[in-house]
Design brief:
eight-stranded parallel beta barrel, 9 strands, alpha/beta, about 260 residues, TIM Barrel
Length: about 260
């Protein structure tokens, strides 16, 4: 049975982050996640979450290695007082010219620098999914439909089997918008990602579905829960990525709809 996490954009105001985390803990979420942005630190957002929800696991997805070498990640975790035992550290190659070997090295370095943290590799295609299965504690998918997520989970399991180890957790961000303007919010974010990089463009071309189809945009919370159930069947951890204005009532509406 899939577990459920909640994800937000980095940089959420500390008080809002604290209160959102407390709400999520009460609703039964397993984990809280933040992305990372050049102008907003995902690890700092996790520090605000940590104070509001001491029982929840914390994930950052993802820290691109071109901006966040392992030694800098370890230093930030220490500076912020984050407990490695609660952390899921998501990493990606970012703008590095190659992917496989830098990720392989970074996973090994982070295991030494931040013992106890679980290392997650961002992946969308077979090679990286199999690499995650081979060496990581988790694989974080993005912008997939349920059938694509199920197929990617098989690639991860193939990598794990080849390395003679148990398969890691397969998670995915699933954008969720609820209420008035929900479809427009999903359309806007998805439209931006469809042309963000050549790799993203190829990914969406392969999916070949209309704009605003890769995620959940519904009028009501009940409809959102029904749509998320299809992802739960394909994943070990479904991370509902909130599409809402950064204010309490809007965040709360999506959080309640995505609760396990």
């Amino acid at each position: 049975m899939s577990r459920r996490g909640l994800g937000v954009d980095a940089g959420l105001e500390p008080g809002l982050a604290h209160d959102l985390a407390s709400r999520c803990q009460g609703l039964g979420f397993e984990s809280l996640w933040s992305n990372d942005d050049p102008g907003a630190s995902g690890l700092e957002t996790l520090a605000h979450f940590a104070a509001g929800a001491p029982a929840l696991e914390l994930g950052v997805g993802v820290l691109p290695l071109d901006r966040h070498p392992p030694v800098a990640i370890a230093a930030a975790i220490d500076r912020l007082g984050l407990d490695p035992a609660r952390l899921w550290l998501g990493i990606g190659s970012g703008a590095l010219p190659t992917q496989i070997e830098p990720l392989r090295r970074a996973v090994a370095e982070l295991r030494e620098l931040v013992p106890g943290a679980r290392i997650v590799i961002a992946a969308m295609r077979p090679r990286l999914c199999r690499l995650g299965g081979e060496i990581a504690d988790g694989v974080l998918l993005n912008w997939m439909l349920p059938d694509g997520a199920a197929r990617a989970r098989e690639w991860v399991r193939e990598g794990a089997a080849g390395a003679d180890r148990d398969a890691p957790v397969v998670a995915s961000y699933v954008r969720v918008a609820v209420g008035p303007g929900a479809q427009a919010r999903l359309d806007a974010v998805e439209g931006r990602y469809r042309t963000l990089t050549p790799g993203q463009a190829r990914h969406f071309a392969a999916i070949d579905v209309p704009l605003g189809s890769v995620g959940v945009a519904t009028a009501t919370g009940d409809e959102a829960r029904e749509a998320l159930a299809a992802y739960d069947a394909a994943l070990d951890l479904t991370i509902a990525r909130v599409l809402a204005e950064p204010e309490a009532s809007a965040l709360g509406a999506v959080t309640d709809a995505a609760a396990p």
